[in-house]
Amino acid sequence: MSKQIELSFPAPGLVRARFNNPPINLVDPDTIFELSTLIAQLEADPEIKVIVFESGDLDFFLAHYDVLVDKARTAAMSKGPTGMHPWLDVLVRLSRAPVVSIASIRGRARGAGSECALSCDIRFASAERAVLGQFEVGVGVVPGGNPMARLVGLMGRGRAIEVVLGADDFPGALAERYGYVNRAIPDAELDTFVERFARRVADFDKEAIRDAKRFIDEASLPDDNLFPPALDQFFVSAARPKTKARMMRLLQAGLQERSDVELNLGRHVASNPSKDASGEHSPA
After folding, report:
1. pLDDT in tens, 66-89
2. Which domain holds residue 66?
3. Is 276 domain-assigned?
4. Per-residue pLDDT, 71
5. Residue 48: what are its φ and ψ, rounded to 5°?
6. Rounded mean pLDDT of the chain?
7. Out of 1, 26, 150, 196, which could bridge 66 as a Cys pair, Cβ 3.0 to 4.6 Å?
8. If 0-12 CB within 10 Å is exposed, 13-18 middle and 19+ buried, where does residue 188 land?
9. Beta strands of the chain (E only): which ranges?
10. For residues 77 and 31, is the Cβ–Cβ distance under 8 A?
């Protein structure tokens, strides 16, 4: 089995983690295991100060969770160190790790991919190529990683409801205006900007980074107890006949393939697909 996350160490204190799970960077149990192992390294290594998550695929940062993975297998995965399901465990531990985590988003980050990006401390996105969204309600399920708890703090209640219940795509520039990402940066400048920022922080003292971040975490992160009920409801909603029918329609149309469905999923989850509700088409 090939690794899905490729690590590099371009400077002291800096780690780059590149997602590479063809054909479209789906999240699956192996992704979760690799993330958990990586986060354990971030928690234990006194030299790591910054980690940058990026993708080797220009069209997909992390597409979403693999819907063809047996739900029973996913539900039965062994709990992580926090005592939560390993996906929730990964998200919570990443947010609280004593390092600065940066999502450099080029391509689609939807569903679990969006949840992973939201769990990072900072999100920088390609203005032209990034697309974020929580499409789950559009297929009849509750988002299992409870992005609702994070989105409300980032963009307010009304916009969080628009993102989650509208189940549409948010291109990079619109995501910036909503607070979904910190900045939308011209695609040609994204890598240079992120590298410069990451190296700047990695040059500071680890103790100061760790302690200052801990106070920000205490004031801003949602309570860990909010996450398990959302995942429980995800499994309940995923088992409904109407949900299975909607998912089958999308699979038959090209879900989980390199297709227009995946490139413009926000439009395709609607019963009568047109352009997205924001009035802005996602990049092709």
Report:
1. 999 998 889 999 999 999 999 999
2. 5-200+223-268
3. no
4. 87
5. -80, 130
6. 95
7. 26
8. exposed
9. 5-11, 14-19, 50-55, 60-62, 100-110, 122-133, 170-171, 183-185
10. no
Q: Is the pLDDT of residue 273 over 60?
A: no
Q: Within 10 A of 19 (CB to CB), how many other CB atoms are there? A: 25
Which CATH number is 96's domain given? 3.90.226.10
Phi and psi, residue 106, nearest 5° = -125, 120
Residue of 136, 162, 176, 262 marked active site: 136
pTM of the model: 0.94
Asked if residue 281 is part of any domain, the answer here is no
Place of tokens 């693999």: 66
* Number of folded domains that form the chain: 1
Torsion angle, alpha carbons of 88, 94, 96, 100, to 10: -160
Q: Clarify whether 115 is annotated catalytic.
A: yes
- pLDDT tens-digit readout, 21-50: 999 999 999 999 999 999 999 999 999 999
Check 34, 54, 115, 262 and give the catalytic one: 115
Residue type, 210: R
Question: Is 181 among the domain residues?
Answer: yes
**180 found inside a domain:** yes
